[in-house]
Amino acid sequence: MDSADFQQKFWLARDNFLEAIEECKQNNHNFFEFAQPLKEIHVKQCKLISARENLLNYLPKNAVVAEVGTQTGYFARMIIDVTQPVTLHTIDINWSIFEKEKFLQEMESGVIQIHEGDSVERLSQFPDGHFDWIYIDADHSYNGVSRDIQCAYQKLKSNGIIVFNDYTSWSPLEAYPYGVSRAVNEFCLTQGWEFIFLALSPNGYHDVAIKKMGVETLDAQVTVDIDQVSTQIEANLVQLQYDKAKLAYKANEMQQQIKVLQLEYQQIDAELKRSQLQVQQLQAELVTKTVIKEDI
């Protein structure tokens, strides 16, 4: 990258950063869209892959596939070459930079089919249970990814897979927040899906593949949750018993202190009465002496 190109990218990233901050201020929401942490069961079966290109080796071959967000078609070309899909449906809202000349044979044979328009609108046109797997690389905002997920998972076969590009909360090259990780984690936590592959990227734009948990996995999670609840209840009972004993000890201490104070009060009261009696005796003696002095 030469100096001029670097400066251009730098100023573009700066403008994106300032634009994102201003948007957050206007909409009164946080700049970063951090993801909720997953549970161990969501990543227990996850396999780590060195790169997203290698991830294709693990995805279903001869399948019906959708790629949501295509741009130049770089990754679509790899999907075709590596996985040899029966059909690859590519969806994008703008095809001006798509390198059509690299897909002439596949377009003629019908292996690749191009769909222009909003991702959710185009996906909605397919019947439920249609795709073996769907690759999502479109709108990276939290709302955008959430829309794509809610539509995509209904279009998958029962054992289907969704793959997400740019699984992160921040784009370092654009200096711009992403909502991919937040949307994906939220979906897994609420809908019972699990990570099966995590493909690394040197720049942090990782890919993640998810699928719906099996019944056995869900049953195991329910058992774990019940055990955790039972353990927590037992811990709470022990804590309550400890707190009760502690309060009883404090109450006993207070009762002892009250007894000591009562004894001190009785002693002071007796001393006060003796002092009052002495004062009365002195007053009586004074009156007697005054009377004798007057008689003399």
Compute the number of structural domains: 2
Biggest β-sheet, characterized?
8 strands, mixed
Distance between the termini: 129 Å
Question: Helix count?
Answer: 9
Q: Which regions have little confidence, pLDDT < 50, spanning 5+ residues? A: none
Mean pLDDT: 88
What do these coordinates show?
- Helix 7 (142-152) packs across helix 8 (180-191).
- The strands form two sheets. This protein has an eight-stranded mixed sheet with strand order 1-9-10-6-5-2-3-4, with helices on both faces. Strands 7-8 form a two-stranded antiparallel ribbon.
- It contains nine helices and ten strands.
- It folds into two domains: 32-213, Rossmann fold (3-Layer(aba) Sandwich); 215-296.
- By secondary structure, the chain is an alpha/beta fold.
What tags apply to this protein structure?
9 helices; 296 residues; 53% helix; 10 strands; Rossmann fold; eight-stranded mixed sheet; alpha/beta; elongated
